[in-house]
Specification:
Oligomer: single chain
Strand order of the largest sheet: 1-4-5-7-9-8-10-11-12-13-14-15
Distance between the termini: 55 Å
CATH architecture of one domain: 3-Layer(aba) Sandwich
Shape: globular
Mean pLDDT: 95
Largest sheet: 12 strands, mixed
Number of strands: 15
């Protein structure tokens, strides 16, 4: 039953009316900034214009401009992959959504979700990340957002086209900061505590969390951080960003001196150029992927550096961090490719060379010994996942620890999905519906009722961390903070357990890489 009684809230820009859905108050599509269209394309976000009367906020806002299936997933996977939203795409996309256990009284912890999809796709309106079930588990407020993506969010034009494009290479990240400012200024009216905001995100959303931790403008707007399979150690520098911007202008037939014409182009043309440039990134070396294509650009000002190279950002030293990965991240992206399907120990070295160069045979030998009985395809997928996700996540954990200013908690998600004959195992993104306790809306997780208990355990860990800065709770084994001595790691599976330095042999392969 949907009721709208008593669900009107006063924000700084005007009143909004939400719905009550099974006891949770829900507000969808609240504008947190002016639509970044026309002359405001590539400009930093502006505060929303006030309105009179009551604005209906019962349906999600538009999704940011993006292409379909940018990761080229096969159809059998796409059917299970209900990660995307279903809204229309538009440049007018600066909207946020709120789920709250109650509008009155108590100051509830706020969980602020940054969606994944690299920096080119995704939305805050996925059925997997509906915040209502977290509110049903405990007294919390959940916020999700849309922001500019791809060329409209991350086109570093200022070095070639001057001041009129200042900040264009970080526009999408500045949108997220604007949404966090909106939360600071308004969330108390929705029952949330502006002094206790946890930013969390998976994949590209985890990378957004990393970047926020290094942005001076975001300082003080969040108090805890969670990075799920989304480590960003090193982002694009000015040269990288300018190269991508040049490629986009070339695709559009514009010289740098004509960059002002970008404002008049139909957005479909910009997306076409973006797709053409993105296609070249798909073939580039794995190690350079954060520096190519559309990423926040280190401009020395809005985004000063790193975010985690050469060390953790000092401005967020005091922020507790939870960070983790999934056991078989890359089955999602690689499992259907010929080199994986046809892998043997005779041809694996060649397949691994683009990833590892001359280290290929040495690394394969170490993994084969550490993971005896595993097939060649499993070893290959494990190596790429550790190279690109796990080793970088552990590097972030260590650099954060080295500041001796806040606790770090590390997890490994190991539950395997039975769908598609089990070929995905514990793939990238699989933990998201567990974190949000939305397993009924995630066909990727199959239908075994045994998985439901893990969803509740994980959701409660995320809530505990948002409340106290520590994810432990009564339904989990004791979970101490990470240290380089014991490397305690929570393994999330049908049975959760604490392990010391799981896959330590493999971890050491990457230590000096």
């Amino acid at each position: 039953m949907h009721m709208t009684d008593g669900c009107v809230v006063e924000t700084a820009s005007g009143r909004v009316r939400g719905l009550v859905e099974r006891g949770v108050r829900v507000f969808r599509g609240i504008p947190y900034a002016v639509p970044p269209v026309g002359a405001l394309r590539w400009k930093p976000p502006q505060k929303p214009a006030p309105w009179s009367g009551v604005r209906e906020t019962t349906s999600y806002g538009n999704m940011a401009i993006q292409a379909e299936n940018v990761f080229g997933l096969p159809t059998d996977l796409l059917k299970l992959f209900t990660l995307g939203g279903r809204q229309k795409i538009s440049e007018d996309c600066l909207y946020l959504n709120i789920w709250t256990s109650g509008l009155e009284g108590r100051k509830r912890p706020v969980l602020f979700w940054c969606h994944g999809g690299a920096f080119i796709t995704g939305s805050g309106s996925s059925p997997w990340t509906d915040g209502a079930n977290l509110c049903r588990l405990d007294d919390v407020v959940v916020v999700s957002i849309n922001h500019r993506l791809g060329a409209l969010g991350y086109l570093h034009l200022e070095d070639m086209a001057g001041e009129q494009f200042a900040g264009a290479g970080t526009a999408g990240m500045q949108d997220i900061v604007a949404a966090l400012e909106w939360v600071r200024d308004n969330i108390a009216a929705f029952g949330g505590d502006p002094a206790n905001v946890t930013i969390f995100g998976e994949s590209g959303g985890g990378a957004k969390v990393c970047v926020l931790m290094a942005m001076p403008s975001a300082r003080g707007l969040f108090h805890k951080a969670i990075i799920q399979s989304g480590p960003a150690v090193q982002m694009a520098n000015r040269e990288d960003g300018a190269r991508t911007a040049h490629q986009v202008l070339q695709q559009l037939g514009l010289a740098p001196a004509e960059a002002a014409k970008l404002h008049a182009l139909p957005v479909s043309k910009i997306l076409e150029a973006q797709n053409a440039v993105q296609a070249t990134v798909g073939r580039a070396s794995f190690a350079d992927r954060r520096r190519l294509g559309f990423n926040p650009v280190i401009d020395g000002e809005v985004f000063p550096g790193g975010p985690f190279a050469p060390e953790a950002p000092t401005i967020s030293a005091h922020v507790p961090l939870m960070i983790g990965t999934n056991k078989d991240e890359m089955t999602l992206f690689l499992g259907h490719l010929p080199w994986v399907r046809e892998a043997t120990f005779d041809n694996l070295g060649e397949a691994m060379t683009p990833y590892l160069g001359e280290r290929a045979s040495e690394v394969i030998a170490i993994y084969r010994k550490a993971q005896q009985g595993k097939r060649a395809d499993e070893i290959g997928v494990a190596i790429v996942g550790d190279l690109g996700v796990r080793s970088l996540s552990l590097a972030i954990a260590e650099r954060k620890l080295a500041q001796k200013a806040a606790e770090v908690f590390v997890y490994l998600f190991a539950w395997e999905t039975p769908v598609l004959n089990g070929r995905l195992r514990s793939c990238h993104t699989l933990e998201i519906p567990f974190v949000f306790n939305n397993l009924a809306d995630a066909p990727l997780t199959g239908d075994d009722p045994a998985r439901l208990a893990l969803g509740e355990r994980m959701a409660r860990a995320w809530i505990a961390f948002a409340k106290t800065g520590r994810p432990g709770h009564a339904d989990l084994p004791a979970w101490p903070a990470y240290s380089t001595a014991a490397r305690p790691t929570m393994i999330f599976d049908t049975e959760c357990r604490l392990a010391s330095d799981p896959c330590g042999v493999e971890r050491r392969v990457w230590e000096d890489a």
